[in-house]
Amino acid sequence: MTRRVSLTRYLVEQQRVDGRIPPQLRLLLEVVARACKRISFAVNKGELGEVMGTAGSENVQGEVQKKLDIIANETLIEANEWGGHLAAMASEEMEGIYVVPNRYPQGEYLLMFDPLDGSSNIDINMSIGTIFSVLKKHDSHPGVHDSDFMQPGTQQVAAGYCIYGPQTTLVLTVGDGVAMFTLDREQGSFILIEENVKIPEDTKEFAINMSNMRHWDEPMKRYIDECLAGEDGPRGKNFNMRWVAAMVADVHRILCRGGVFMYPWDKREPHKSGKLRLMYEANPMSWLIEQAGGAATNCRERILDIQPTELHQRVSVVLGSKNEVERVTRYHLEADQK
């Protein structure tokens, strides 16, 4: 690149163009980025920072927490609670919402996050990340309640993730395309590396946990069987399979080169709509994918149109290259009509 544009400069320029980013939202995004930078440093220290291993506790989902899960969650709360931009926060790691304490000024935004996505990869030194989503609080009542967070993904005003891998990369949308920034550790700031990220509509690559195949619905089995049949099958082309077991890493690959990511409903927990969390994972990732020209559904309907009913609501996810997402969705809708 001929000029090095920092995240701060990028956001300021976005604020100046038709007031695309309100000043308080710009400041909030800068604070989130700084928190992600701190998490990145903790992740990179590994065993040297005494942050590895489990914490001996479980989160609200009943999942064993890693030490870094807790550190990342606390880092995001501490960084954001005092700045005056937020009214409240919600996290995959906490049962209820975290209202900004009275000793700090309250802002107009709501922040949701998965502080450390893919934490099962921590101890084996594979990519993990932080996912975040920003909503605007309704002004219809004083105080903050769970109901304030119950907004469909179409109401997001910002969303993104930070992936901690060979590079630390921040990916962001404010509703006008997708931009990527890489952390320059010497300079200490995120630098713009790509704007207007686009996902190809067609792909030969899919990401899914194949070990669960026996538990899937028939439409999902049909789609994967067709991919595995290769150029001799009904698709007439060979597919590659990729699976990192961290949504943030699989989505980042799709934004970089296309593909389709699937985490469907399965028979082991038939009463649950899926595994991934609507508010902390599916909504922000779906908006990023759509802003890059892709698509995202729960196998039947657009994820961003789903009306949340609870903080930790789960959902099936199919997202990525548009034509493949539409095919998977069509297979499910056709099966429903039989």
From TrEMBL:
Residues 6-195 form the Fructose-1-6-bisphosphatase class I N-terminal domain. Residues 199-332 form the Fructose-1-6-bisphosphatase class 1 C-terminal domain. Belongs to the FBPase class 1 family. The keyword Cytoplasm applies. Binds 2 magnesium ions per subunit. This is Fructose-1,6-bisphosphatase class 1. InterPro entries: FBPase_C_dom (IPR044015), FBPase_class-1 (IPR000146), FBPase_N (IPR033391), FBPtase (IPR028343). Pathway: Carbohydrate biosynthesis. It comes from the Bacteria. Its cofactor is Mg(2+). It is found in: Cytoplasm. Gene3D superfamilies: 3.40.190.80, Fructose-1,6-Bisphosphatase, subunit A, domain 1. Keywords: Carbohydrate metabolism, Cytoplasm, Hydrolase, Magnesium, Metal-binding. It is an enzyme of class 3 (hydrolase). Mg(2+) 2 binds at residues 114, 117, 281. HAMAP family: FBPase_class1 (MF_01855). One of its GO terms (molecular function) is fructose 1,6-bisphosphate 1-phosphatase activity. It catalyses: beta-D-fructose 1,6-bisphosphate + H2O = beta-D-fructose 6-phosphate + phosphate. It comes from Comamonas avium. Substrate binds at residues 117-120, 209, 275. Homotetramer. Pfam families: FBPase, FBPase_C. Its EC number is 3.1.3.11. Its main location: cytoplasm. Mg(2+) 1 binds at residues 92, 114, 116.
